[in-house]
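Progress note, sequence design subtask.
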């Protein structure tokens, strides 16, 4: 896991994630985005658009015609697996990750979808915004916070 002295970065991944021991190592980008989501903000300092590119399986955030981040996904019936959240480094720690996740989850709720979460950043968001917990498919939750030792 990370070199940080905290359990905020400890997650258990389902078998289909490909980690035989049930845990994986987070990248520095993932750690940065988890920290971003945990920072309390009123919202991003600037607006951005969100496009659901169904053909490529990504919700993509744009400022003008520039991509600033996104969340990749796959859809099976009414369940969406959210795989990874990305925000370009120059746009981090401005509330973009939090607002991106919030908008994606709101869109999925509007369409009656349930979630399997493979992205620890989304897990962190939902853990800190429990009003979205009902979206998680109880039979296929995906990544979960690791049990404290």
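Output:
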């Amino acid at each position: 896991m990370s070199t940080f002295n905290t359990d905020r970065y400890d997650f258990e991944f389902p078998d289909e994630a490909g980690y035989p021991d049930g845990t994986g190592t987070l990248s520095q980008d993932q750690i940065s985005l988890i920290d971003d989501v945990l920072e309390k903000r009123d919202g991003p300092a600037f607006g951005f658009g969100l496009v659901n590119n169904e053909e490529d399986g990504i919700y993509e955030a744009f400022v003008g015609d520039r991509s600033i981040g996104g969340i990749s996904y796959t859809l099976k019936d009414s369940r969406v697996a959210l795989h990874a959240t990305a925000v370009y480094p120059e746009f981090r720690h401005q509330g973009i990750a939090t607002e991106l996740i919030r908008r994606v989850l709101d869109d999925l709720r509007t369409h009656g979808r349930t979630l399997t979460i493979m992205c620890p950043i989304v897990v962190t968001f939902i853990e800190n915004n429990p009003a979205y917990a009902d979206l998680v498919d109880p039979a296929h939750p995906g990544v979960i916070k690791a049990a404290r030792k």
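The radius of gyration is 15 Å. Work on this subtask will continue into the next period as scheduled.
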